[in-house]
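User: Can you predict the 3D structure for this chain?
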Amino acid sequence: MSDRSTANGKVVVNRAMSLDGFIAGPGDSIDWGPRHLAVYAPDDFAGIAAATGAMLIGRRTWDVGARMEAEEPGSVDYPFSGPMFVLTHRPPEPAGPEVTYLTGDIGEAVATALDAAGGKDLEILGADVAGQCLRRGLVDEILVYVLPVLLGDGIRLSPPGIGRIDLEPISSTRSGLVTILRFRVRK
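Assistant: Here is the predicted structure, written as structure tokens:
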């Protein structure tokens, strides 16, 4: 990946996770905490959001967020105002103005979203999109907010069959109830 991460921002997988490794509970449930990160780690959360220039989000994650927002307005507020891209095989008709839908190759989607980030970080959201990016060696860092809960089942941070990926610890911070871990992906 050479100097891409320093010239154009980093590609960062950003996830809240239960202590037992789940980013969502059964039925895509995230009522256990991720939507409340601004309360759990307000200073760190705002700083990370400020470093983000664009987001690349999986369709399922986008749909879960839209459902949560419809059920409880303000529940998915994030202090971010940059461009959002949703990677999907089935773009909606008509597409909404708040998001750009991308189809096709994950490498092209990352390049498009990273370019739109304007030199800031590209945040990757969604287990499937993150897994695709990790498989292709497109991720520079992984940022994990570990919440003090055991879910027992759900969607794992790392999908099955991803293979070994070596990481280098960058930082570990406690912020409120959350432990924030940051790792560099070794290339």
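The radius of gyration is 16 Å. The CA atoms of residues 71 and 116 lie 30 Å apart.
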